[in-house]
Amino acid sequence: MTTLEVMLADKKKEVAIRAGEAPLRTKPSTYPEPFFSRMNGREKRVLGDLFGLKNFGVNMTKLLPGAQSSLFHKHTRQDEFIYIIEGNPTLITDEDETFLAPGMCAGFPAGGTAHQLVNRTSSAVIYLEVGDRSPGDEGLYPRDDLKATLGPDGKWVYTRKDGTPY
Question: Per CATH, which fold does 3-159 belong to?
Answer without folding.
Answer: Jelly Rolls (2.60.120)
